[in-house]
Write a structure and sequence with these properties.
This protein has about 450 residues and is an alpha/beta fold. Helices cover about 30% and strands about 25% of the residues. Helix 5 (about 135-145) packs parallel to helix 6 and helix 8 runs parallel beside helix 12. The chain binds ligand EPZ.
Length: about 450
C-alpha cells in the first residue's frame, strides 16, 4: 500500500497546472449511455475513480478508449489534452455490479441514463463511505415520479420504465448527483420536465453543456430550476470538461499554508469565489492573474476566519478539510461548520496527532492556532481528508508518513509530482520503509 513521505518547511513557488474535474468527468461519462453514437471527452483526469467508471461502462458493453495526447507537430507550447471516447451502441448488460460499484460511490449516476436509454437498470447500492451514509432516495423518488418502478433487493436497485415521462420534481434537499442523474433521465423522457431546487455546482452546468451538444433541450443550466424538453434520441458529441475547482482550491491552500508564491494555472477563477474570498479574509494575498490562473502569496501571519460549508456557490464541503489544515496555522479561533455530510471530520484526529488544537462538537470543529505541527505517521481516510493531511505535512517539522494514499489517487492526478514541481519535498513509497531525504531534498537509500 503506497505511502507519501513529506518533509515540511518548503514554501511552494512557481506554477502548478490543474487537471480536469473528477466530479464533471463522472456524470459526463455516464451521459454516453444516452446515445448509440460515440462521445469524445477531453481533459478527463487520470484518477482512480475515472478508471473505475471506465471499467463500469465497459462491463455493460460500452467501448471505452483512452487516447493519449499526441505532441503537436508545430511544437506549440500548449500541452494537448488527452481524450476518452465512449460508445454505448450495444449495452449488452444494463447492470452496475457490486464488485465494481463498491469502490466508487458515484455509480448512482448510471441509474437515470440506463433507465432512460434501455428501460431497465440494475445498480448495486453503493453503500456508505467514510464521510456519510450517502443515500440516493432523492434519485429514486425522482425516477418514480417519471414513471419508473423501483425494486430494492439483494443489495441492488432495479428500475424499470418502458419510457420515462417528463415530471415536475422538487428536490427535498439539494443533491449534486441527484440533479445530474435526473437531468440525464429527463433528456430522453417523453414530454417536459421541470426540476426545482437543483444543485448549482459548476459540474451540473458542465453536464448540461454536454447534453445540449448531444441534442438535448435544456433551459436554466447553472440555476436551481432546470426545464427539459425530452427528445427521442441523442447523438454523439465532442466536449472538453471543466478544470477541477477542488484541486485548484487545494493548491491555493497549499500555497497559502506554506507561505509560498504559487500560481494555479488551467483553472476557472469564477468557480473559486467562496474559496478565494475566505483566503483573503484569512490574510492571504490572492490575485486572479489570467482568465485561467490564480496567484496565491502566503501571509506572514494568517488570521482566523470561520467557515460554514454550503451548496455552491457557498464554501464547498470538498474544501472543508483543506481549510481546517490552514486554520491550524492562523492566529486565533476558527469555527469550521460542516453542514453537508454527517461525518466529514475524519481528518481532525490525525491533525491533532500532528499537534493541532481542534475540538469537535456535533457538526462544528473549533480550531485554535497557530499550532506548531510536528511530523507523525498518519492515516488517510477519504479523498479530501487525505489532502488536508498533505497540507499539514507541508508545514510540519520533520518527515510525515501518510499511509493509504490510494484515497488521494481517487481524485488527485499526479498529486505528488505537481507538489514536487512546486518545491515540496514529497515522495511516494511502496511498502519498503522510505529512504530519508538528502540535504537537497533528493531521496537516498
Ligand atoms: C457530490 O456528491 C460530489 N461527488 C461530492 O464530492 C461532494 O462532496 C457533494 O456532491 C457535495 O457537493 C460527485 O459529484 C461525484 P449530494 P453527492 O447528493 O452528489 C444527502 C469529493 O470529495 N442526500 O449533493 O453524492 C447526502 O447524504 C466528493 O469529490 C440525500 O439525503 O452529494 C448529503 O448529506 C465527496 N439523499 C447531501 O444530500 C439523496 O438522494 C448532499 O449530497 C442524495 C443526497
Amino acid at each position: 500500500m503506497d505511502k507519501f513521505i513529506i518533509r515540511g518547511g518548503n514554501p511552494l513557488t512557481g506554477t502548478v497546472r490543474v487537471s480536469g474535474a473528477k466530479n464533471s468527468a463522472l456524470p459526463l461519462m455516464a451521459a454516453a449511455i444516452l446515445t448509440e453514437e460515440e462521445i469524445a471527452l477531453e481533459n478527463i483526469p487520470h484518477v482512480r475513480d475515472i478508471a473505475t467508471e471506465r471499467r463500469l461502462l465497459a462491463s455493460m458493453g460500452a467501448v471505452v478508449e483512452l487516447h493519449e495526447p499526441v505532441a503537436p507537430e508545430d511544437g506549440s507550447s500548449t500541452a494537448p489534452l488527452s481524450h476518452t471516447t465512449i460508445c454505448c451502441r450495444s449495452l449488452s448488460e444494463p447492470v452496475a455490479r457490486y464488485e465494481i460499484v463498491k469502490t466508487m460511490r458515484a455509480s448512482s449516476l448510471v441509474l437515470g441514463p440506463l433507465v432512460a436509454r434501455t428501460g431497465l437498470a440494475r445498480v448495486a447500492m453503493p453503500g456508505g463511505c467514510a464521510i456519510g451514509g450517502r443515500p440516493i432516495d432523492l434519485h429514486l423518488k425522482g425516477l418514480e415520479k417519471m414513471g419508473a418502478s423501483i425494486v430494492q433487493q439483494h443489495g441492488y436497485i432495479e428500475a424499470r420504465a418502458p419510457r420515462l415521462r417528463g415530471a415536475h420534481i422538487v428536490f427535498d434537499r439539494i443533491t449534486v448527483t441527484g440533479t445530474e442523474d435526473l437531468l440525464m433521465a429527463a433528456a430522453l423522457a417523453e414530454g417536459e420536465s421541470v426540476l426545482e431546487n437543483c444543485a448549482r455546482e459548476p459540474e451540473v452546468a458542465d453536464l448540461a453543456g454536454l447534453l445540449t451538444a448531444m441534442g438535448a433541450r435544456i433551459e436554466g443550466a447553472g440555476t436551481s430550476t432546470l426545464r427539459v424538453h425530452g427528445v427521442r434520441s441523442l447523438h454523439g458529441a465532442r466536449y472538453c470538461i471543466n478544470p477541477d475547482r477542488i484541486e485548484a482550491g487545494t493548491f491555493l491552500m497549499a500555497g497559502a499554508i506554506t507561505g509560498g508564491d504559487l500560481t494555479v494555472a488551467g483553472c476557472n477563477p469564477d468557480h473559486l469565489g467562496a474559496v478565494i474570498a475566505k483566503l483573503r479574509e484569512a490574510g492571504v494575498r490572492v490575485d486572479v492573474v489570467a482568465a485561467d490562473a490564480v496567484r496565491v502569496r502566503g501571509a506572514d501571519k494568517l488570521a482566523a476566519a470561520d467557515i460554514s460549508t454550503e451548496e455552491y456557490p457557498g464554501f464547498p464541503t470538498d474544501m472543508q478539510a483543506q481549510y481546517m489544515a490552514l486554520a491550524t496555522q492562523a492566529e486565533g479561533v476558527s469555527l469550521v461548520r460542516e453542514n453537508i455530510f454527517e461525518n466529514r471530520f475524519m481528518h481532525v484526529q490525525e491533525l491533532v496527532r500532528m499537534g493541532a488544537s481542534i475540538k469537535v462538537d456535533g457538526n462544528t470543529a473549533t480550531v485554535r492556532g497557530p499550532a506548531r505541527l510536528s511530523s507523525a505517521a498518519v492515516m488517510c481516510s477519504d479523498l479530501r481528508a487525505s489532502a488536508s493531511l498533505v497540507l499539514a505535512a507541508l508545514v510540519a517539522d520533520g518527515e510525515t508518513v501518510l499511509d493509504r494514499v490510494y484515497h488521494m489517487d481517487r481524485g488527485y492526478e499526479r498529486f505528488e509530482e505537481k507538489l514536487r514541481g512546486a518545491g515540496a519535498q514529497i515522495q511516494r513509497m511502496g511498502d519498503v520503509f522510505p529512504p530519508r531525504f538528502g540535504p537537497s531534498g533528493a531521496t537516498h537509500a
